[in-house]
Amino acid sequence: MTTIHDRPVVTELRLSAFKSHRGASFGLGPLTLLAGGSGTGKSSVLEALAALGRLACGDGLDEVFSSVVRGGAAACVPQGAQPDPQGRRGFRIGCTVTGPVGPVRLDVAIQAEPTLRIVGERLTGAGETLLTTALRDPGRPTVQAAWHTAGLVSVTRAPLPDDRLATALLPLRVAGRTDGQRLVLAAAEQMVVALRGVFPIAPRPELMRGPVATGDGRLRAACDNLSAVLARTEGECVTRHAALVNAVRAVCSPPVEGLTALPAPRGGGGEGGADAAVADRVIAAVDRGPLGMVPVDRLGDGELRFLALALVLLTGPGVLDVDTSTELLPASQVLTVLGDGLDHGLDRRQLGELLRLAGVAAARGHIRLLGTVQDAGFAEGVGGVSVTALGGPQSRLHEDAVDQSG
Q1: The pTM is what?
Q2: What is the pLDDT of residue 402?
Q3: How distant, in Å, are the alpha carbons of 14, 37, 252 from that of 210?
Q4: 215 burial class (0-12, 13-18, 19+ CB within 10 angstroms)?
């Protein structure tokens, strides 16, 4: 039986050279808050981890950094970094994942200019260097990879594409015949499983107020399909839906009798008139008891953000639009929820309730939370919450140039 301690989780993020961060490392516990004012690099930390998550899914570099990082890969180059004689500039990120193999480290060097490519990657664990890659011929779109074999030949070498994470490709290239190969596969799986469970959440209230198709039942990062997901959880996840109702009741003005999804009004002069409903579209509503149903399009931004964040913390891979490993049961996986600007538009009572929900999920081993806030004062006295303050000397430990050779 898989226990909480057997599930792979990201326990450290390293930004050796990334945007405003140099030589920085961040320990990640079950509940971690990064606190600091605007411009202190909080969002950059989440962007780096989100990028690693997408790379672990097998996505290409250009697709990852154009969609995850504001400004794309070029914006990841450390501020003030000068190009080398060949005109190359880049950045370095990495992480540690703890699981059945023990701590496994991944470090990646990425060239952003003049060509976007991975120029070096290193996977280490169990006292061994399990994988290394290096750019040998700048004219070819490949890197030379070498992975631990520990058989008649100690290391296997082969070219791999320079726009994909080699660690994510190892299961397709390693046979698993020797103890060394099996160790490589176990470490790579541990890393990939943890990173594929990274789920950035950025609720956008202006997109959450409209009706949505009933079959759109996996919550996206923007939570624009909130109504359809609530319709699904109300019918499929009775216990979790009741917990969500209790959370909303605890922080919203009374009365709150329930949450439900209503057929969306047609709205216009179509057949049946303006009061007719569209059968395949729904809009979520708060049941105010004697006051009637209040559709979500009438709720404030803060209420909608709280509702979306609480829903994320009470659900899992089957409800969230996250590309987790299909080879492991959901019970063997942990989601790492990234909440940038977690305190935006929320009051202290709502933030306290979110931390309570996150604590319950973390205790069960289902979800870990990494969030950014401007002021973490609301978390004082809440057990199990780690707070890292950015903007001081801790966030810029030392200068570290990008090693283009990996």
Answers
A1: 0.91
A2: 33
A3: 40, 33, 21
A4: exposed
